[in-house]
Amino acid sequence: MRENHAGRLAAVDPATIETQALGAIAAASSEAELAEARVRYLGRRSELKQALRHVRDRETGLALNTLKNRVEQALEERASELEETALAASSRDDHFDPTLPGEAVPRGGLHLITQLRRRIEDVFLGLGYRVFDGPEADTVYNNFEALATPEAHPSRSPTDTFYLDDGVVLRTHTSPSQIRAMREQEPPIYVVSLGRVYRRDTLDATHTPVFHQVEALAIDRHITLADLRGTVEHFASAVLGGQHEVRMRTSFFPFTEPSVEFDVTCYLCGGAGCTACGHSGWIEMGGAGVVDPAVLEAVGYDPEAWQGFAFGLGIDRIAFLRHGLPDLRLFWENDIRFLSQF
Amino acid sequence: MMRVPISWLREYVSFDTPVEEVARRLVFTSCEVDRIVHRGVVDRDGNFGLFRVGHVLAAGKHPNADRLQLCQVDVGEGGPRQIVCGAWNFGPGATVAVALPGALLPGADAPLREARLRGELSQGMILSEAELEVGLDHSGILVLGDGLEPGTPLADVLPLGEAVLEIETLFNRPDLTSIYGIAREVAALTGGELSAPPGSDPPLADEEPVAVEVQDLEGCPRYVGRLLRDVRVDGSPAWLKGRLVAAGMRPVSNVVDVTNYVMLALGNPLHAFDQARLADGRIVVRRARSGETLQTLDGTLRQLLPSDLLIADAERAVAIAGIMGGEESEVRPQTTEVLLESANFDPLTVLRTSRRLRLRTESSTRWEKGVDPHAAEGAAVYATQLLAELAGARWTGATDVRGALPERPVVRLEPALAESSTGMSFPASEQRSRLEQLGFEVSDELDVTVPTWRARDVTRPVDLVEEVARFRMEDVPATLPTRKAMFGQLTREQRLRRLVEDVLAGAGFFEAYTWTLVPAGEGKVSLQEPYSAEMAALRRDLEQGLHESARRNANAGVERIDLFEIAHVFRDSDGELPDERWHVAGITNGGYFRAKGAVETLYAALHLEPSFAAGGARSARTPDGVLRELADGWGFFELELDSLFARVPDVPLYRDVITYPALKQDLAFVVDERVRAGEMVGAARDAAGPELRVIAPFDVYRGDQVGKGRKSIAFRVEFQSPERTLSDEDAAQLRRRIVEALAERFGAELRGSA
């Protein structure tokens, strides 16, 4: 066998192979023909490859390798020639303009508030909260009394609140949903409510009588104000994106004790001061606090055993500031030129 | 809003902390500080030193101008200065406020200069109170009280210029609606020393009886009345006017100004009656009689109800308690006898009347939050002192009618509670000293006696937690709850709602938000008080809002309009609350069939087989709602989500539509014009059973070939079995069943062969 091989190999003449190969490559007029030539002259069974496998001396090896490189180079050159020719041919095709617009696919989209609402829901789902939907028309009891709101509190005035009758209002905040959620479920409870709320504000660029709120409630064995702060900080960076400093300051709500207000460094100017933040560098984000024991008692939770926090804010205002809108009424006019921007 | 002039604050509390830092700490612990405003003369580069007390030595007509006075004024420099002045309300001997050349006046761009006015040198300016921003009067110059040394810095005599904090107080902190209350807070924040509250009684000149009868001790738990005689009603001194103006109030007369000043200082509103105008000189505190009226100070005739609390004399109403006095008994220039009222009123009583009358005043906003009944006497004392000093009044009689005043609550301090509530360590000693700084008394057994001014708000151990925690807000760490149970998932309805939104958005519809409130009408739940005619009731469906939005887009020239909305709708119910449900609706200017296409896509995405029955004119019903062509040719649909979702399978199961091939055919039937394609589909399905996998109308033809009043409907049909390959005979048999059924029910004739 060896002799045989050696005998056959001795017959390989690089010059002949080169002439044949280069000729075939030059003659190839399509990618398919070129691929054929590549197999024939450089394929595993080609004379050249076989010869290379059995090289014994350096000189032959060098010669054969040089030949191989030359053939490869010729193949590459011819390939790019063919490609250019094909391209030139296709661009001469007057009937196909690849730069014309694509077939129109109707595009719809979710309202900006829905997009933000989902983002907020997803943040709280990730934190292990459920999403609770309550009715928009709710009892005075759920909206005010169970939340320890004194009768003298301005929010209870018919100048501020829409009453349907003496016992039913359009909810002024999403908090009555929390009351419902607590009555429906034993603690621990981690729940977030989002939706429309109603206040008798004059309709103008920065006020609408209907707007959207989100409120989170966590009741467990050892919930603290520190847990509230951690949750709000996570919420701020997850919903607003980027790094934000959050500050917590004393406030008052009838249903929390202590009550706090959260501000976040202005997400337009980064805290330097601009018109959006009234040159303070801070934007009010929302109200919160440790749930008042009176509220826990109102829903039948034992305030000695359970403690928690509640945290609420307006969605519209965040979207308004974040996207640089000039007027809140845009949310309600449904101009498709507006809706399709988001 | 409360305006707190810093010089006034410093009268009650000493502190070295810069004002900006005080404001910052107040924000974290006590109230909102909207901003710090600088008003009056700028205190910079020695500017204050250029404002002096001047003594007018000589004054006379300017030789070249009839309207100007030429004055020689001693400002403590040895020789007098010559000053040209346009006012004539003073003469030689007057003590005045002078600005020297170089002084920067409030609001001025450039400093004052020596100038020649009509040929005479003027080496300064004699000032009006408006020019100094210490009052509003600019009709003449400000004449100061006698006895001031010429050259005295004006800043020592009146509030020349200063920072003013603009504060929003919280609902539970009525004690902060006074300068003294803020001072108490600032003392706790800075460690500064708090002075005793201002005011000490002048000698009681007589022991005249003061006739005060309180018929309603619930509405008026306390009424301190004081009688003052020989009152000289006049303007207030500059310092008093300056403070009122800085605090945002308008000076009126010394007597009225004193009542306002004491209210601002101590938080207890006061009222001064002209005693001579009270019938029988009596005060009766009672509820209004039906039909009773009162002309209030603002000139409005008020109709009163028996729920309104009144201050009356022996005959008629003289004030609406805690809200506004009557015109009839108000103090006027000729008044000499004053009955000073320093009372306490029930918050809810004042609130209800103030709301009903839509009349909110500096006084009512304080009462409705709850003023400390123990403050009434201190306010009376301070006002009496000031009336004696500023109006020469003689104090001749006093009374203090009171019901049972609330006890000071005693609350147990539980030091561990602050730690478990805030999540940070909180030494008991710190809690204790904090409370003591705020005027709480803490016994060795940790029983805390709440000060009267916080008695409404602090009644429980958790309230004490807030009192101490609010000073440490900046220190609270950020942690997350330790969890033993997780709830992080959407409900089925919530997931499906998101799906509906996504499907419609994917079908090219933009989501709209439209108002819940619509015009009142049959079957709608109405608001007790409409917001407007257009917003008076709750919507029963989503059509109106979407239609309006669509029209607005059309008017704006938007070409392709496809909108949808998912929202609550409301109906009257027998229950306590309205019947409230989720609806989805869509509108499109692409016509009825674009709307129907969207609905069909929606059903398909929910794994529901849609069924449509013809409704009224150009409309159809599904089990879940309606589809309609609107008058303007737009397509509209509205579906109820609960109904839709009730039929959605929780887990769609696999059906084999892959293993055995489907046999496809087209079938066309000629039927009467009135026959609906949907009915034929239903009948065909009934006749052929599950092996008829697809039947879909794709063409309707009318013309001579089918005859008048008739039409041809072509259906694409697919037969398929999950169990075997259907043979041609199987297909023929299925097809025969369909043809027979349609012929029998609708008289349908099969057209040619497919």
Secondary structure layout plus pairing:
The complex is a heterodimer of chains A (342) and B (754).
Chain A: H1 2-10, H2 14-27, H3 31-42, H4 47-53, H5 58-91, H6 112-126, E1 130-131, E2 137-139, H7 140-143, E3 163-165, E4 168-170, H8 175-184, E5 189-198, E6 210-220, H9 225-240, E7 246-253, E8 256-265, E9 282-291, H10 293-298, E10 307-314, H11 315-322, H12 330-333, H13 336-339
Parallel strand pairs in A: 1-5
Antiparallel strand pairs in A: 2-4, 3-4, 5-6, 6-10, 7-8, 8-9, 9-10
Chain B: E1 2-5, H1 6-12, E2 13-14, H2 19-29, E3 32-40, E4 51-62, E5 65-74, E6 81-85, E7 95-99, E8 115-117, E9 120-122, E10 125-126, H3 129-132, E11 143-144, E12 161-168, H4 179-190, E13 193-194, E14 212-214, E15 222-229, H5 238-246, H6 254-266, E16 271-274, E17 283-287, E18 293-295, E19 301-303, E20 309-312, E21 317-320, E22 324-325, E23 338-344, H7 347-357, H8 362-367, H9 375-391, E24 394-402, E25 410-412, H10 415-422, H11 428-437, E26 441-442, E27 447-449, H12 461-469, H13 492-506, E28 510-511, E29 517-518, E30 537-538, H14 543-555, E31 562-571, E32 579-588, H15 592-605, E33 613-614, E34 619-622, E35 625-629, E36 635-640, H16 641-646, E37 663-672, H17 677-688, E38 692-701, E39 710-719, H18 728-746, E40 749-750
Parallel strand pairs in B: 14-17, 28-31
Antiparallel strand pairs in B: 1-12, 2-13, 3-12, 4-5, 4-7, 5-6, 7-10, 7-11, 8-9, 15-23, 15-24, 16-23, 17-20, 18-19, 20-21, 21-22, 25-27, 26-27, 29-30, 31-32, 32-36, 33-34, 34-35, 35-36, 37-39, 37-40, 38-39
Helix pairs in contact in B: 1-4, 5-6, 6-9, 10-12, 13-15, 17-18
Quick gist of this model?
By secondary structure, chain A is of the alpha+beta class.
Q: Can you walk through the features of this model?
A:
The complex is a heterodimer of chains A (342) and B (754). With 342 residues, chain A is of the alpha+beta class. Chain A folds into two domains: 90 residues; 228 residues, Bira Bifunctional Protein, Domain 2 (BirA Bifunctional Protein, domain 2). Chain A is built from 13 helices and ten strands. Chain A is elongated. The relative contact order of chain A is 0.10. With 754 residues, chain B is of the alpha+beta class. In chain B, the strands form eleven sheets. Chain B has a seven-stranded mixed beta sheet with strand order 28-31-32-36-35-34-33. In chain B, strands 4, 5, 6, 7, 10 and 11 form a six-stranded antiparallel beta sheet that branches. Chain B has a five-stranded mixed beta sheet with strand order 14-17-20-21-22. The longest helix of chain B has 19 residues. The interface between A and B is large, with 85 and 90 residues.
